């Protein structure tokens, strides 16, 4: 196994009605974000569009990775990593359940390694 040092500060803002804060929170630090979306009704119920609009209104360029499985495969991590490297992504935002968040943490850690 390769040696590495991993530091991952994470802010979780959770609760009813707090999604409107995402653009302001992220816009303070980031200009390019990967929005990783789980399989589910997020496009149909309007949540995806709403989250994306909040980020774009704060000057954030948003890249998509859609329909991530509930038990993500290594190929999903590789796809996300490719998007991040090709577009100099600074932050990964998960929309969906915990396995997707773990997938995003893996993408984030590999994106910011020195190799």
Spell out the blueprint of helices and strands.
Layout: H1 22-27, E1 32-38, H2 47-57, E2 61-68, H3 74-87, E3 91-95, H4 98-111
Parallel strand pairs: 1-2, 1-3
Helix pairs in contact: 3-4
Low-confidence stretches are: none
Shape descriptor reads globular
CATH class value: Alpha Beta
| Span between termini | 14 Å
Can you list the strand order of the major beta sheet? Answer: 2-1-3
Our count of domains comes out at 1
The portion of residues forming beta strands comes to 15-25%
CATH names the topology as: Rossmann fold
Mean pLDDT: 82
How many beta-strand segments? 3
Sheet of most strands: 3 strands, parallel
N to C succession of SSEs: HEHEHEH
**Number of DSSP helical runs:** 4
Which value, in Å, is the CA radius of gyration? 14 Å
**CATH architecture annotation:** 3-Layer(aba) Sandwich
Percent in helix: 25-40%
Q: Which structural class do the helices and strands define?
A: alpha/beta
Give a written overview of the molecule.
The chain has 115 residues and is an alpha/beta fold. The protein has one domain (19-111): Rossmann fold. Helices cover 39% and strands 17% of the residues. The protein is built from four helices and three strands. The protein has a three-stranded parallel sheet with strand order 2-1-3, with helices on both faces. α3 (74-87) crosses α4. The two termini are 14 Å apart.
Q: What is this entry, summarized?
A:
The chain is α/β, with parallel strands linked by helices and 115 residues long.
